[in-house]
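To: structure desk
From: M.T.
Subject: fold request, one chain
Message: Could you run this one when you get a chance? Sequence is below, nothing fancy, just the single chain.
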Amino acid sequence: MSEQEAPEVQISATFVEKINFACHQSAFAILRELKVQNLDTREGLSDLTIVLEASPAFLKRKEWKVDYLAAKELLLVKDRDLELDGGFLYGLTESMRGAVTVQVLQAGRMLSERVIQVELLACNEWGGAEYMPELLASFCTPNDPAVDRLLGQASQILRKAGKPDAIDGYRSGSRE
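Reply: Done. Structure tokens follow.
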């Protein structure tokens, strides 16, 4: 292969379209799939680095080292755990656009790049059932300190009335 010919490398990545603070708190899998394929039919590629980074920096840069990718080989990256920046996501007061860039490098030279657009939601926004149904519970009980005060007051009122001050259906076996 000559110096001018860049090897054909295809990146396929499936990323969630909406990301919020609850994703960080719940260790929600935001990178669903990452594949890299060497499309060259004759030559393998050695000493590759797959780099994933975001703009703005809502997640920590991640790198994977690949010793060798044979001709026509498809690599399915299994380690898809990414570290979100909880402070950044918690500080968002309104949604904004972000981008995730995945690059395949060989000795510092870029062979392929893929940019994926995402929406970064404010910490009190939920992406909806279509995007993140698993995180609905994160938005059902407010985590505002006022809720704790209200529950404490309700508990005192129940005690004064001679009632149990907590819902103990698990212990009593009762659903009432």
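Reply (cont.): The first strand starts at residue 9 and ends at 15. Let me know if you need anything else for the meeting.
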